Amino acid sequence: MKMQSMNSSRRRLLLAAGAFGLCAAPAFAQGTYPSKPVKITVAFAPGGGSDLIARLLASKLGDKLGQPVIVENRPGAGGMLGADAVLKQPADGYNLLLAAASYTVNPSVYKQPFDAIKDMTPIAQLARGPFVVAVNPNVPVKTVQELVEFAKKNPGKLSYASAGSGSIVHMVTEYFLDVTGAQITHIPYKGTSPALTDTVGGQTQLIFGTVGSTLPFVKAGKLRAIAVTTPARLPALPDVPTVAESGYPAYQVTNWHGIIAPKGLPRDIQLKLNKAIQEAMFDPKMETTLGDDGLVPAKGTPEDFGTLMASEVARWGAVAKKRNVRAD
After folding, report:
1. Which residue among 106, 216, 301, 307 has the highest number of C-beta atoms inside a 10 angstrom radius?
2. Is 191 exposed, middle or buried (0-12, 13-18, 19+ CB in 10 A)?
3. Model pLDDT for residues 271-316, shown as the tens digit of each residue
4. What does the DSSP 8-state code read for residue 237?
């Protein structure tokens, strides 16, 4: 009888130990990630705003994760090629994509081999900032309302530059024209640099530029900033109002960046990356560097970022259909 009791006790202990092992497995798995370098793919050429943010993040994130974080550039098709390459990788946390705002524009202008929302796992929004609405100084307008009135009174006289048909700049400008009713001709370029160059030179008269690329021309007097697209003003241009303040409250656009992974990323890795990324982005030196480019770090859960991306895909899809926006 005593032997039976001892055997029963031993079986219960073994079962309890087994159950504990099963419960502890996910925590142990979380502790082993990452065990090798992590790669962030930037779907654009080196030297641009997306590349800068990725490299700033990588320099801090490696310390948080305890492994090197490598940045690899894979440009093409407005960011679609790099995204496709990453989303086909294993969902193990070692292949990440820096997603720019254009990622949510592409589904409405390209036939993509993946679903921009269903085939990814959102991790964290990194930073956000405005586009700067800037005109050539020879254009006789100083406000958004004056721009809209001038365009309506002088149809066909004004043109705006973009980084290419189907680009994020093309889309946000067409959205502006739809909201304001202004008619301004689109002139697409192969990239931001030539678009800015011709706006400064007067070949085109208007551009919705990123802060980092446009602000130096504004400060040098070569472009006139008349508004920013975010709900709040830009600290670097405190006297420049928002488009919403200028009489068009329906128009609010944010230029953002974030990190995503292939679909099926384990929840523990998703949360670990979200926490490490936010700690890296809110480092005081990082905040100062971002501020120089008119950007601020963004807070939020993976779900917050996923909701933002889904809403942006829907918004730009509607704008593309209404304004007949297409890629080159």
Report:
1. 106
2. middle
3. 999 999 999 999 999 988 898 888 999 999 999 999 999 999 999 9
4. S
Residues 140 and 217 in one domain: yes
As given in the structure block, the two tokens for residue 265 are 């990323």
As for how many domains the chain has, the answer is 2
Report the CATH number at residue 310: 3.40.190.150
DSSP bridge pairs for 95: 39
Both 46 and 89 in a single domain? yes
Residues 107, 136, single domain; the answer is no
Which tokens go with 46? 């080196």
Residues 218 and 75 in one domain: no
Helix 49-65 with 284-292: angle, nearest 10 deg? 180
Cβ-Cβ contacts under 8 Å for 8 (sequence gap 6 or more): none
- Domain membership of residue 88 as a residue range: 37-129+255-323
Query: From the CA atom positions of the chain, what is the Rg in Å?
Result: 24
Q: Check whether residue 114 and residue 137 sit in a common domain.
A: no
In angstroms, the CA 99 to CA 113 distance is: 16
162 and 211 fall within a common domain: yes
pLDDT of residue 31: 57
- Residue 8 counted as domain residue: no
pLDDT digits (tens, 9 = 90+) for 229-279: 999 999 989 999 999 999 999 999 999 999 999 999 999 999 999 999 999
**Contact predicate 323/177, CB 8 Å:** yes
Query: What is the side-by-side order of every strand in the sheet holding 206-210?
Result: 185-188, 159-162, 206-210, 131-135, 224-228
Give the DSSP H/E element, type plus range, for residue 170: helix 168-180
pLDDT tier for residue 78 given thresholds of 50, 70 and 90? confident
